[in-house]
Amino acid sequence: xxxxxxxxxxxxxxxxxxxxxxxxxxxxxxxxxxxxxxxxxxxxxxxxxxxxxxxxxxxxxxxxxxxxxxxxxxxxxxxxxxxxxxxxxxxxxxxxxxxxxxxxxxxxxxxxxxxxxxxxxxxxxxxxxxxxxxxxxxxxxxxxxxxxxxxxxxxxxxxxxxxxxxxxxxxxxxxxxxxxxxxxxxxxxxxxxxxxxxxxxxxxxxxxxxxxxxxxxxxxxxxxxxxxxxxxxxxxxxxxxxxxxxxxxxxxxxxxxxxxxxxxxxxxxxxxxxxxxxxxxxxxxxxxxxxxxxxxxx
Length: 298
Known about the structure:
The chain is mainly beta. Helices cover 13% and strands 38% of the residues. Strands 13, 14, 15, 16, 19, 20 and 22 form a seven-stranded mixed sheet that branches.
């Protein structure tokens, strides 16, 4: 799912520090713990628009490969390639797979499925199906992706670390993931989890129903799948909980001119939690296991 716009920070946020660790021998260092057990650690970066980017190698044919950055979009089931990259790879619209796909030091994925789109709001990204099939974990606190993780290694780490984590189950609707959130202690609503969204947003009608106010003097343009709209400041979100577990109340933006009825209509989605929110919560997430871990900061 593509939601774009400059991220805005508000003073009411419960700020959670990123989960960086000192060294690989520290039992509180998840990357070191997993690396010592044979997992592959892949760093990601945010580009100027706030999109997650990772270095990958795409091979349309056995003897032709191209290194290129790719994004991750858990809000889209499929992998997507835009027209510029399609041309560089020498692909035609009838070709639906790449011969090989490399991500870090993970074993290559053969017959990697691809789709093409001329929509400027859709970039080059790995979608939810491939994220899940590859068994990838995201550590948004340290901006790392983990692959090739031994079975139950994450669970073993969580049981042994001196750090404390909340566990939040991801609900699924096909390949889409969401959680049920309560804002300011009011009636819970479904919020989509989307790594393809650079900014977290809340449905305008729902925000008004909660009594949230917007600073309409400070709005920014934002693109979505339905075209360009705008988002505005809101300072009135004080608490946020999922399954009664408290989370960072970092949700400073809201749709001013658009409701979220177009996002998974059967689920009545009232908000989208994007990369900004996942990083603020230093979340550790797996689509394969439908789970998010959030560190508890006293």
